[in-house]
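Entry, Tuesday afternoon. Goal for today is a structural model of the target with 2-oxoglutaric acid bound, before we commit to ordering more compound. Inputs were pasted exactly as handed over by J.K., no edits. I checked the ligand SMILES twice against the vendor sheet because last time a stereocentre got dropped in transcription.
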Amino acid sequence: MFQFPAQMMRVFKDEQMQAAFERDGFVIVDFYTNDEVVQLEKLYSDLHPVEEKGFYPSTFSKDKRYRQTADEEVRRVGSRWMNENLQDFKTMCGSFIVKYPGADSTMCVHQDMTLVDETKFTGINIWCPLIDLTDENGVIQVLKGSHRIIPTYRGATVPCLYGGMKDNDIIPYLSPVYLKAGQAVIFDQSIIHYSAANLSDKIRITTNIYFTHKDADFRIAYYNKDAHGDKVELFEEDDSFMTNFEQFGDNIFDKPKIGKSIGLFDYNFPKLDAAWLASLYPEKAKEIKAKQEALTTVFNPQPEQKSEKKSFFKRLFETIAN
Ligand SMILES: O=C(O)CCC(=O)C(=O)O
């Protein structure tokens, strides 16, 4: 396994923002102006391919022109805020991430795939909705501080840290981030996050800008148990990886078809389970337990409560009868 660096390479000009990001794994900022939101909505409606449904990032699209235009334009519009507020960074990819209305638009609990050498660098997303987020339209939810639970290699083929747990065991620990249109959550890609289905009647369009420190290179992880036991294979990729990688939409479980293998690396780590998670977030665990107990009491009332209920109804009927 590897170690995280003692200190992150600085990318935020504001010291407090940098410190909050390192501590919590995310910060919230006012990212787009109203005009920029309108520009991006128009861009999406001009560009978007008709076959989209469910949860659909533009990086999944087979239409390279769509992927590239989304990439260039989202970066261009985002560059105002980024140039004002970031330092020593490079922008790697701009994209749309869209949730169409429907139960098939959930994004399960996950950490994003490894994209840099995390012994030195951090992969960072600026995720910005063009609409106010609500419980109905798939608000993003994050587990504060989870980017530092333990170092992990991540990717579609790589066994994940929380693989032994069900989403429903983790979701109660997450916090929804109710962003307004144009506000962004900037998060470390190794933070645990999730978004429920968009059950509203409106499409939820988000832009995502992936950036990192200017000295970082792309690095992705691939795991094949039969071939390599408990080692992962790491691949170096060039800076056009996000727009040239054709395997996001399908074949994501195949060996990367682009990039250069840099060899096999150990990948054995303890798995996150309910007890470990509860010990990391004791206050939240207490709250969750209390809620579960309250629900159990409602659905399985104790005998004395049943009799209280009976006497309540008895009193009610007596009142009506009188
Ligand atoms: O767009 C969303 O709702 C979630 C996005 C997400 O989890 C991701 O891009 O990793």
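Residues 283-321 form one domain.
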